Amino acid sequence: MHTSPLSRRTVLAGTAAAAALTATPALQGRTSAAEQPPSPTYRWRTAVIGGTGFVTGVLFHPTVRGLAYARTDIGGAYRWDDRTARWTPLTDHLGWDDWNLLGVEAVAVDPAHPARVYLALGAYSQSWAGNGAILRSEDRGATWTRTDLTVKLGANEDGRGTGERLLVDPRDSDTLWLGTRHDGLLKSTDRGATWKAADTFPAAPNPTGQGVTLLVAAGRTLYAGWGDSDGTTASANLFRTADGTTWEPVPGQPAGTAAKVPVRAAYDRHTRELYVTYANAPGPNGQSDGSVHKLATATGKWTEVTPVKPGGTTQDGSADTFGYGGAAVDARRPGTVVVSTNNRWAAVDTLYRTTDGGRTWTSLKDSAVFDVSETPFLKWGEAAPKFGWWIQAVAVDPYDSEHLVYGTGATLYGTRDLRRWAPQIRGLEETAVRQLISPPTGEAHLISGLGDIGVMYHERLTASPSRGMATNPVLGSATGLAQAALRPSYVVRAGWGDHGNGAFSRDGGRTWAPFAAQPAIAKDAPGPIAANADGSVLLWSFVHWDGTKHPAHRSSDNGATWTEVPSFPKGATPVADPADPAVFYVYDTDAGTLLASTDGGRTFAARATGLPSGDTQFKVVAAPGRSGDLWLSAKWNGLYRSTDGGAGFSKIDSCWASYTLGFGKAADGADYPAIYQVGSTGTITAVHRSDDGAKTWVRINDDAHQWGWTGEVITGDPRIHGRVYLATNGRGIQYGEPV
């Protein structure tokens, strides 16, 4: 759904498909593998923002001081090292074809073998997603052995913040258990190499349900939560096995709406009590009721220990509805437990802590002091940060009773004294990146448009942007970001916001002002936006979140007034010519047609037709500093180029698949900008660079740095040859430089 700039003012309407695809000799000739230049060595790092995504689970190792693991819904798994106070990513080696495995459903460790760690991977359980997989490591995740499953997992679906669904059996390190969404309980007796159904598990698999929500060991007895009960006493949602073979419902378990779904469980080995948090839905959204109960495993007695019952009212009269989420016990102090509320928007979520087995509780939010100076975006454009939301991951360090961490929808907070909190997030980046600009001048080498956290101005790549999220207005997910090529101090952005969905900057993105007005449709369907070469004209396209496309609008007065552009394809992405302010381009992905405007975006007419169509993964990019030099990145259809403003395109033979394309500073002695691409020149999808106008390519990433799906956007740095910025869907902004 992307377009590209154009340079010729004369509109060559009705160009035939044959003419549009005629290849010129200069663009022909695939270079053989033997002729390809050697690949340079690149150093890859993550541009620091800090977290920015949903940390769904944190697991301290019970027998190794300072070792912990974290899982995320779309950004892979991480290992914590207390000595360096840093998270190390463990799944960056997963490549393009394995993008679905960047969602981590569960983590398991083996207390008897401290170097062993297991991951259950799979983001989606829909038919279009691949099956899940188990990764097994003997060296804390430095290297992995993989087992592909025959079932799907759902690490980015409802219920992703519930308990660990993967467990090493405390009786036998070779035995592992895996709870699935739709295929019941699985068991492995060879440390995850092979799996089969646990036939004695009494709950029937549900092809549309939640399935197993948690697995936990209480001594030698295993417990499994079940998310598909109806909340009645006749419909059990917690099962146990004492012998590893026969499973049964736990007698006397709580029932009712407030205990419909077991969310998390934690075992106090000192008191032999199992604490279980419940909600009326798996979360993280949709919970409005919940409770906390404990089970004396020796006697079978249940006791409700809910800190505060949902359903009251706040001071302003709002309904205080929520569920319960995280649960963690203090391994050093009997009867000391921490639980979290979840989906509590009126009174704001909190952690409750008890030191007397649940008889009394203290809200840790009430005394919390936050320091988010390391990740200023957590202020969300306000004076002070909030405690967080989507709190389902809670963990207490087994070697330090006052080292407590909890995950939110945007970060991981930690404390060492139960009062002062700060992000414990170094090394963990989960941003879903949507747009990238590398300005040719100014303080910042990078401006980014992101999912959930709007637009960031990166003064440095090694520290979280000091201004945090772009404000005035604050936006949620960014949908558009553009810079005037001949006036780089002028930048525009668009996205989802509560107080206007578009803004402009006259100082290169440091500060912003909202458009004085916006089309009515902008409130519900903000989409991509473009500024012409001198910033005098804006084109704003509109796409609803459900995919519904709407007419684009044009402004020639910096967003004070807008007029509809009927000839612009609905929902398409406008692209400005970088050298001619009168020219815009747009690619109609439905028709496979390149259209151009030579009157500043007032009207568009077709130029090349018969181009690839039928998919949104098309992107037109204009070569910087040149009018009419357009490149069409057409997914598995490959790469095309036009040097006449889109009147005709020639297919580039040096690659057979192209997912996204960008430009950077030319190599010394080269007369054309460096081209960066995510695509396929051989057998795999990788990140490539060409210094000779796409005649030849070199791969610049490696097998250890792949990051799953990377097809959104790539751009080079116009001031530093070889530096490239790459958008990922869950691993933030990766940037690479030649060593």
UniProtKB/TrEMBL annotation:
Q: Which residues form a coiled coil?
A: none
Q: Which UniProt keywords apply?
A: Carbohydrate metabolism, Glycosidase, Hydrolase, Polysaccharide degradation, Signal
Q: Which residues cross the membrane?
A: none
- List the signal peptide residues: 1-28
InterPro entries reported for this sequence: TAT_signal (IPR006311), WD40/YVTN_repeat-like_dom_sf (IPR015943), Xyloglucanase_GH74 (IPR052025)
Q: Which domain of life is it from?
A: Bacteria
The UniProt entry's sequence similarity note says: Belongs to the glycosyl hydrolase 74 family.
Q: What is this protein called?
A: 1,4-beta-glucanase
Organism listed in the record: Streptomyces phaeoluteigriseus
